[in-house]
Amino acid sequence: MRILIFDDHEAIRIIVKQQVLEIVPTAEIILCDNLDCAKRSILDKNKFHFIICDLEINAGCNTLVPELSFQHEIPFMVYTSHVNKVLINELEKFNVNSYASKISGIEALREGVVSLFTGKKYQCPLVVSTAESKEQIKATDKLSLTGGQKMVLEVLAKGFNREEAAKILKIKMNTLNNHIARARDLNDCENFEELLRRYRFWDHLS
């Protein structure tokens, strides 16, 4: 059995590996700590039987590994700190097998891994309660952005103000403000803060 474990925190990779080896001592495990490594490994000719991955990479959220897992028909588990309705719906598109929150503890991780290996669907209690919640949660949908809008938001996400961003990008302030206004309109953002928050939530470094 060949398994990819992808997480950018070494301690989490070790914990997940230990759980896997307790269940399948003979498993061949490949560890990746960044998206490039994970992508190369998945696209390699030696196919994985299972993938266990995080979504929180570079302090943002990224669904590339679930997307690739789905495309290559590899059953996968998500083990992450991120849990919200948008992500739950997003991961359902990729037919996620197991979804466990890191704050739900080792038991949730273990149950998720066992379910992954046995072909059963699993969601930890936190994921289930979030999915069933009637509470109105502020949307964190992915943004649809042009190249220019991405460049502007990337600079602003680093903490520069608009004037500084315009100088860095060598564009007029009016152009910068137009990029922001169009990005807000296109993505139905109430204000700039919502636009930037959603941009930061999804991994803008990918």
Architecture per CATH nomenclature, i.e. the level-2 architecture of the largest domain: 3-Layer(aba) Sandwich
Q: If you compute it from the alpha carbons, what radius of gyration comes out, rounded to the nearest whole angstrom?
A: 19 Å
Unreliable residue runs = none
Q: Any idea how many domains? A: 2
Secondary structure: helix percent: 40-55%
Shape: elongated
Number of strands: 8
Annotated CATH topology of the largest domain: Rossmann fold
Provide the CATH superfamily of the largest domain: Response regulator
SSE order: EHEHEEEHEHEHEHHHHH
Mean pLDDT: 89
> Strand fraction band?
5-15%
> Pairing-aware structural class of the strands and helices?
alpha/beta
**Name of the top-level CATH class of the largest domain:** Alpha Beta
Distance between the ends: 29 Å
Main sheet attributes: strand count, strand direction, barrel closure: 6 strands, parallel
The helix tally amounts to 10
Strand order of the largest sheet: 2-1-3-6-7-8
Task: Summarize the structure in words.
- The chain is of the alpha/beta class and 206 residues long.
- The protein folds into two domains: 2-132, Response regulator (Rossmann fold, 3-Layer(aba) Sandwich), CATH 3.40.50; 147-201, Arc Repressor Mutant, subunit A, CATH 1.10.10.
- The chain is built from ten helices and eight strands.
- The protein has helices spanning 10-23, 35-43, 64-71, 85-93, 106-118, 125-132, 147-157, 162-169, 173-186, 192-201, and strands at residues 2-6, 28-32, 50-53, 56-57, 60-61, 76-80, 98-101, 122-123.
- Helix 1 crosses helix 5 (106-118), helix 2 runs parallel beside helix 3 (64-71) and helix 7 crosses helix 8 (162-169).
